[in-house]
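Hi D.,

Good news: the full-assembly prediction came through. Inputs first.
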Amino acid sequence: MDKYQINHLKELEAESIFVIREVAAQFENPVMLFSGGKDSIVMFYLALKAFYPAKVPFPLMHIDTGHNFQETLDYRDKLMESTGTKCIVRYVQDSIDKGRATEETGYNASRNKLQTVTLLDAIEELKFDAAMGGGRRDEEKARAKERFFSHRDEFGQWDPKNQRPELWNLFNGNKNMGEHFRVFPISNWTEMDVWQYIYMEDIELPSLYYTHQREVFERDGVIMATAPFMKLRENEKPKIMSVRCRTIGDITCTGLTLSTANSLEDIILEVASSRVTERGGRADDKRSDAAMEDRKKEGYF
Amino acid sequence: MSGKDTGYLNMELLRFTTAGSVDDGKSTLIGRLLYDSKAIFEDQMEAIERASARLGGEQVNLALLTDGLRAEREQGITIDVAYRYFATPKRKFIIADTPGHLQYTRNMVTGASTANAAIILIDARHGVLEQTRRHAYIASLLQIPHLIICVNKMDLVGYKQEVFEQISSDFDAVASKLSVKDVRFVPISALEGDNVVTRSEKMAWYQGPTLLYILENIHIGSDINRDDFRFPVQYVIRPQSKDWPDYRGYAGRVASGVVAVGDKVLVLPSGFTSSVKSIDLYKDSLQRAFAPQSLTITLEDDIDISRGDMIIKEVNGIPPRVEQNIDMMICWFNEKPMVPGGKYGLKHTTTEVRCVVKDVQYKMDINKLDKEFNDLTVRMNDIARISLRTTKPIFIDAYKTNRMTGSVILIDEGTNETVAAGMIL
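Then the structure:
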């Protein structure tokens, strides 16, 4: 590498910091969505870097399905306190109680899709004009077509066939009243980049990402955590296993990986040798070939 | 695994674009690169096996990996720019996969804007076609530093050397009329995997490297302008906190060149001078800053600087032009044609101004590489040379010498859509 070259992680970092600063400069009332997963943790860390020594000039928002791992919530509260950041929380349960969303029933019931209602309501209520998310293009094929600055109409919908072309470093956040943008600062990162960056920068993660003993059961070949709201079938027997999360969604749709990885080095080796994608364990994507595209059009993250 | 400072963390990033249509086997080529470099996972493979079977294909269709939207999978075409990622131990790659048909020129331009390299696919049975000229022209217009011409489907022409050489010399004739610097040719079969990742045994006459070897080894260090320091101020950081009462930092991404602590700098448009006090990135203080780093610069003197201003070096290098009347090549993106005399928003680095279109000099027939002077209505996917006037001066360089300070986008003031990309002359 030449004297004036930076490695791929530093280049991705520079690109993401540029995008986050562009959001702060172009929008009046932006928000950063935070789930407690590794991608949103890295995105928030990049925001800290972008404005240091000033505080992050926008709040975070967590859409809480009520089906979170407790470890995620503890981690979130600690991180907000140590960095002096405001985190708004909106609950899917409130949307259900108000009749804005209808709870799914059955064994595979998930509140994953209902988050969209809560999110769009919160954006309207709090008048956010840009919501940053930790989506990555390598996650899923519909996301591969997503822009950094993704325009949403007044109904919060995405029109994948009519997206604004995005060239060079020039991001067009101009919009009409009532419209908003979704912005994806870490669009160009892969799962491996995220892990390598966490390692390079020594970023603390929720304990769920490391191996731990947990009560689990198997469904359609996927290992899932038990919880009071998880309905088990006859043949699904809870047992204790050594597992870790490769990705964290809510409990109902997060597949766990059998793993003994208890350090970032172990995790990176495990990711490098893995033969399934991290979303391979996500029940929400398996619903159909275009499951993600359909959810995104409606206004999902 | 080795330590944090060595080995696998120190990879370079190469962005490349692929131009070509489905018929040229472009999606198959990308599928092949991902597959042979083991970037495809089992669940993705299962998903495309399921989809291939449903669509009635005999073989597993590697093209299905890249066609992300439902409409594309159903119609078997690529209608937008899709981004793909893979890595080898040497480099991490970002592919901007763009459709090659005429009606998608705008997508090709978009994908090309950030690319270090372009792969242009030519079907060995058909040779250099109009679309090849179009792809080469766009690569030249967007100043992609490296072109790799893949003569594909060599299996269908009996792996004959003469076919490859004829096509290479035909392409050289096209390239000689354009402004392209580095052109390489590789005979491949994406379907069979010849010379993509592994060397072909059927083309012993070809002594050159495989496509992946080229992608891994092209020298990209000098793709960025290292001579002229340009720092468009993006955001002013003023904590005004107890710990940092007087901190005033100018945040941004270095567009080109290098600056070091202590260097004398000049601020545009005010013309004030000062020197660099510190270069900060989070809790680290750096000695120098260079493109494409994002960082924060503090200056010795308290001067009024805001977003849209530009910090340059006081000495060394050529200063940017400070102009209001600007000539540029544009690619039009919108269904609504350009309005002569029309007013548009214009974004350049971190500045946004308004502009009025003064004149259309010519349109470019990008299939024949001829200038068109009669029909001057600029429609979607057209490329034209225009003059415009901005409401206030902006700090520009020619796109040829600086991709970051030589590029603009035009915005429709009614719909807010991005309607054109401009390369300053």
